[in-house]
Design a protein that fits this description.
Helices cover 39% and strands 17% of the residues. It has 334 residues and is an alpha/beta fold.
Amino acid sequence: MPGIVDSETVKEIAISEGWWLDVSKSIIPSTQKLFESYSGIAPDQVVPHVEEMVRGIFYLVAAVPAIQYLLLGNSLANISYYQRLECFELFPNPYFGKLYFLSITINHHPRYKEILERIFTGEVLLDFDCGLGQNIRQLVNDGVVIKNIYGLNFDKRHTILGWELFRDPRTLSKVFMVGDVRNQLHKLSALAGNCRLIHVAGFFGSYLMVYQLHIARYLVERLRPRKGCWIFGQQAANLHSGDYAAPHGGPMVYHHNIESWTEFWKEVGLQTNTKWRVEAVLEEPVLDGQTSEGLLPNTRRMVFTVIMEEDFDDPLDETIHSDDCSILTSYSSS
């Protein structure tokens, strides 16, 4: 059985398995600018810094048994998804393998100027399942006061990696809520009635429809939004809504089109005694400079704003069932 391998060997394995992208080609101009202006990294040091971080993620996060498995001549194609989760933990998720954590999407939202204005006036924003927190750093870099933004993570390692990536553990030490899914959903109650902006990037598209409904209901029940609240962001979509097998051996997911997304929020309204209006557009699946390799046929990127049109006064059942929550731990940070 091989011993612990060095990071360059890990990189070679990742390349052979299709899980390594060229960092220099994955950093779009807005991301480059953020590393320079927010993190204070010299322009010519941005790529080396990110490469070092990515190499560290692959080497430190990828469990040695998985690396040994590959060095013995086996292929990831022969390992089930859940076995890969056990071996690689964060590694097999395309959020890392495809460098999605370098994608800053919030500033590409068509209502971004309005979002900033609302936060400047004191409204609170929650970045739900914020990953390494790249969108939160964009907000701070654009002048948002830290006390008006929160990031919710389901894995504390994401938060720690984010501090390392953006070099700001002291600056943003109190912004993030981290822990297991059940406890975090309960923590949302602390923001009840105060959170008017909820950013969700990719999370819904990582689950089947039934669990998407659970997530949406939990958000509404915990945060107790009021008229004018926005749930906005982007997610994987498809011209033909339905269940799809996630790439790279992941679980089944449901991808919406605009029609199904609109109906989805009508159902959320029925279940929570609320009323929502959906604004959504389908765009090309990747931003400039990113790769579309490995995407499902007819994949699109849905950019959306879901606007609460009526307040609710009826008390809601806020019981969280552990069986409902357990599925959320299986595939997060999309």
